[in-house]
Target: Phytoene synthase
Amino acid sequence: MMREQSEQLLPGCPPDAIRVCAEVTRRHANTFYFGSRFLDASRRAAVWAVYAACRRGDDVVDEPAAGTADQRRDGLEDWWRNVEAAYAGRPANDPVWIALAWAVATYPIPLHAFEELYQGLRMDLDGAMPATLADLELYCRRVGGVIGFMVTPICGYRGGEETLACALRLGQAMQLTNVLRDVGEDLALDRVYLPADYLARHNVRRAALERGEITPEYRALVQELVAIARAWYCEARPGIAYLEGPARLAIAVAARAYEGILAELERNDYDNLSRRAFVTSRRKVALVPATLWQLYTSRPPSQAPVVARRCLPQSVLLLLRGTVMTQRDVD
Model:
């Protein structure tokens, strides 16, 4: 995959380091990886580098191998120092940090976005579970929304702060989708991200969640949060039109695939305690033509041909590859 496109990478891009980041992204964020394949080689490489760097921080917080609480806090501080070193052009001798240093030197990825992510990861370490929807919204901003601030400058965009606000909202919608998908997995880590006031209002107790009870009250709670997630996707959607060229298709496909997890959760009768909602690889490929058509028809007539000319060849290529794509049902 990297051999096929190495000639298209910008000068200075470290292909071996990017290959490592690509594999991290493919393994841990299949939907994100799928959408990134519509970008040109250099933007795709930068997106993979950003994801792999973010994943390092997430692993410090979530992986059992990260050690005790104190060791995890030390690990998170090390992660933040590595981010700062990459921005200073002095990355650690590690492929992820080498790739990030190249990405931030090539594209205007703001350091403050990584700083907010650091704050969000500290919330996890501190055990700060959301008491209200506003708390959950802040958490989704810090660990998900800010990814929009990182990726949008890589894609290129018009529209200034309004486009960035949409990117933030899309990241929050995706993170809320993660929360709703992973309730059972988070319980195993002694975490509950469902807002405490929503749990109380629906008379849902943590003990019942730990027993895996999917009650009518719990279904109503999840249904209400699913509606909020969908509203956030709707708020984010207008910003996609202001991304440059194929990035519109890349982000639109990733957004539709991720939003599709909510429909799968509904098909599972809101059981996110013992089942994991996912969108299959075949279904993701099937989303491409409809997404392309939506982009084509939603653009002003003078710009629609540009969308087709820039995006159609890549979508056809991906559809042809679809028959041999892995059918791993992840993310």
Summary: The longest helix spans residues 133-155.
